[in-house]
């Protein structure tokens, strides 16, 4: 669906995307000249809420600073079957949707996010990107941090144990990227940290920070004896 000529939500609402249960792949493309005005992309994309059966989503040229509410942490679970997401040329976007909550997401590609500085990590789940197999980060010049594994405290049942003991019993580590096998990081010159994928098989990097390179090399030496394809260049 090409959206460069769409200027109001009503045109998109007529598509009635929520009812298209047999729509498994959706491409939303904004094509503009450099001097074109930015239309209300957020309103338009908000009205294109797809059916929960959607499996592949591709967004290109979206011009707003944030994504619609149907991609919010509270509602992203309404798209449980999403397995592949590609988002590119979102030059103004400052906030990434809660893709880490998607249970069956296997492929995530992010290209040309010029204003994105960090990626939120406010999950209560025990796993972050639990099924992701491949991650591509390409041309994210301001991205500084991708939160590492963190400790999650579960709410315990009623007990007479002291609070500190309850917390010790309920704390566990939230693992990031437990299934990731392929990682590509290109033109991310400020990114200094990334969660350690335990099953990584292929790593490709170009124009990354020394800090990130060292951490990846250390991980490869200590933990990744099964890492056959390690490439570094342009650091």
From TrEMBL:
Q: Which domain of life is it from?
A: Eukaryota
Q: Which Gene3D superfamilies match?
A: Ribonuclease Inhibitor
Q: Where are the transmembrane segments?
A: none
List each copy of the R13L1/DRL21-like LRR repeat region domain by range. Answer: 2-112
Protein known as: R13L1/DRL21-like LRR repeat region domain-containing protein
Q: Which organism is it from?
A: Cinchona calisaya
Lineage start? Eukaryota, Viridiplantae, Streptophyta, Embryophyta, Tracheophyta
């Amino acid at each position: 669906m090409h959206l460069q000529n769409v200027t109001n939500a009503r045109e998109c609402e007529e598509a009635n995307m929520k009812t298209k249960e047999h729509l498994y792949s959706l491409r939303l493309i904004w094509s503009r000249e450099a001097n074109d005005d930015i239309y209300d992309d957020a309103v338009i994309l908000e009205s294109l809420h797809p059916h929960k059966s959607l499996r592949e989503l591709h967004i290109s040229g979206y011009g707003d600073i944030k994504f619609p509410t149907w991609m919010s942490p509270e509602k992203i679970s309404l798209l449980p079957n999403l397995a592949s997401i590609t988002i590119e040329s979102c030059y103004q976007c400052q906030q990434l949707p809660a893709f880490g909550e998607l249970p069956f997401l296997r492929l995530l590609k992010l290209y040309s996010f010029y204003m994105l500085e960090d990626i939120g990590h406010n999950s209560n789940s025990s796993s972050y990107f639990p099924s992701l197999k491949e991650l591509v980060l390409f041309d994210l010049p301001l991205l500084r941090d991708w939160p590492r594994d963190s400790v999650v405290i579960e709410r315990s049942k009623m007990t007479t144990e002291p609070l500190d003991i309850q917390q010790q019993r309920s704390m566990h580590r939230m693992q990031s990227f437990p299934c990731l096998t392929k990682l590509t990081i290109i033109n991310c010159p400020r990114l200094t940290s990334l969660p350690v994928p335990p099953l990584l098989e292929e790593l490709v990097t170009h124009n990354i920070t020394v800090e990130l390179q060292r951490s990846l090399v250390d991980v490869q030496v200590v933990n990744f004896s099964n890492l056959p394809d390690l490439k570094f260049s342009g650091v």
